[in-house]
Specification:
single chain; mainly beta; Alpha-Beta Plaits; five-stranded antiparallel sheet; 2 helices; 10% helix
Amino acid sequence: MSDGRIDASSNLAVVRASERWYAVCCKPRQEAVAEENLLRQGYRTYLPRIRNTRRRAGQWIDKVEPLFPRYLFICVDPARHSTAPVRSTRGVSGLVRHCGLPAAVPEQVIEAIMQRADADSGLHRDNRPLFCAGDPIRLIEGPLAGMEGMFTEEDGERRVIVLLELMGKANKTRVNRDWVVPAA
């Protein structure tokens, strides 16, 4: 990439011997603003992102958000490019420091994060299931709304199988995944 952004599929992730990675602490929900402003100042940046599934307005949606909320990384040769302007950059709170000095992030850590990202999209994926077998659930919609039971397994992209007590015995029932929430 020519704009200074680093992604997991980029060859620009190669770091020269004198360059170091640093973690930048951003203001809440300002990671993209900070990244854009750091790029404008000539810094190489890496903002790892993850695709998560969240429940919003009664439906499960995919959302892309920072892998490390409030943090991104910059690659700098401290002998050639000062890090002083970073703390006054819009969207930035400051550099992560140790004993008063900017703390360098080992290159191996950055490489490991990049390698775990999807090669095509550059995004990380939250591979945890929405529910695990045996989790208590509650149905919030549909003809069985209000009933509580147990999650057993996923059945395709939009359906799940839950175990509900119906007519005096436990029954496996297929329902829309949007109707299921964790039991309180």
